[in-house]
Amino acid sequence: MIISQGESCTIPAGYANATVTNQDANKAGSYDIAGDGIAINKQIPGGQTQNTPIHQNEVTVINSGKPDLDVADCQ
Asked: Could you name the domain of life of the organism this protein comes from (predicted)?
């Protein structure tokens, strides 16, 4: 699911990682991952994909930067 700045989506329980891809090859971005016992703030370089362990917990991914982000397994 593509999320823009200020938008969020939820990855349901059962996934090992949050997989986030920066859709803009030329601009870095940032996002937050929040859930039960999880509070992570990440920077993501332009065009890169990151896999962050979420330990099978339900989490919310919030785009806190300008480029659109593609978040796998989000609802």
From this structure: Bacteria
